[in-house]
Amino acid sequence: MTLDEFVKAFAAEFDDTPEETFKPETHYRELDEWGSLVALSIISMVDDEMDKRVTGADLRNCTTIEELYNLVESK
Amino acid sequence: MKCLIDNIDIKCIATCLPEGILEMSSLKERFGEKAVEDTVKGSGIERLHVAADHETTADLCERAANNLFEATGFDRNEIDGVVFVSQTMDYFNPATSCVLQGKLGLPEECVCFDIAYGCSGYIYGMFQAAVLISSGACKNVLVLAGDTNSKMVDKNKHSSLMVFGDAGSATLVSKGENKMGFHICSDGYNYQTVLNDRMGFRKFPENTRPDYQPDPAMSGDDVFSFIVNVGPKTIKTVIELMGWDKDDVDFFGLHQATKITVDFMRKKLKLAHPERAPFDIQNYGNTGPTTVPMVLTDYPHRAEGIDTSSWNKVVMAAYGVGLSWGSVACDLSKTLILKPINQ
After folding, report:
1. ipTM over 0.95
2. In chain B, what residues touch A38 (CB-CB under 8 Å)?
3. pTM for this structure?
4. Domain ranges of chain A
């Protein structure tokens, strides 16, 4: 999965935040909709789409979507 | 492992909560208002039913079973199998299933055994009952699933004290006419994710000392990752196995670790009728292997307008210690579903 595809898949897990909000440099934990339910959905999306496991701690330790993408790719 | 087993009926499901109640709001002075409110917000749990010191899981299952026999009029002498699913057995030995066979007045021509599983345990109990009947060994199996989690949790940690409650259940599984689907998986590679080494012999004799510090139990993040990774897949697998469509399922009896995990399953499965997969543990908490039968019995007797005779297609799914997880698909439309004792 490319970074652009990851950003799109990441955005798709949000119900209310417009897709154009999401860029590689977006600080995702600062988004209004960010919360436990979205975090679980991201963990599940990464498992489904990339067959990799991320944890809640991983999501808390990254700031931007690109950082998270790089972390997942390194696993 | 997945399989279909024919000619099985679930005749009755009964549950029993202990009388004791712990209100989460009563813990604010001890743990702080914000910590309690944040935990309740995430868990959705407002109160727990908590067993008294002298009250065991077997006692709660016994009460549920007696209620089942009274409500159905089923002859106890027809029971030829007992499966007790719990991590809080009466004794290290003998098996609690044997103790309960005697207490319930069941016949000697009866195979009894214990299954030591937690949150996923009801799935294992139902599978074991169906296999015993399908093999021809038994005709009527009593599945007794329960836990008194409040006796195992660290009472100094609000995050666990405020989630785990106590309950027992009894389910009568008999030779019949319906098809059941099962999907069951294990991940012993990650057994440490949920671990209690205060009992057992791996840490003996250190764990018998009063000052023993157990390995840290329950890494919350790892547990959540586990649930989100396996939950939707096992639900989809059993639905596919039965040849059903997810939106035709009449009821989802999902294990309820916290409100967020149930909300997640509903979102992930994109259910056309999300109300068919309710969050239900606000009044009693995560009761381990009893959570699924508690949802199946508490919800229809609490919510308005629920007619369980329409539950032709029911999916149960649970995930927990082991790591272990699985799902069951079955017909509960003719099942007698009793109101929980002390609801």
Report:
1. no
2. none
3. 0.91
4. 3-74
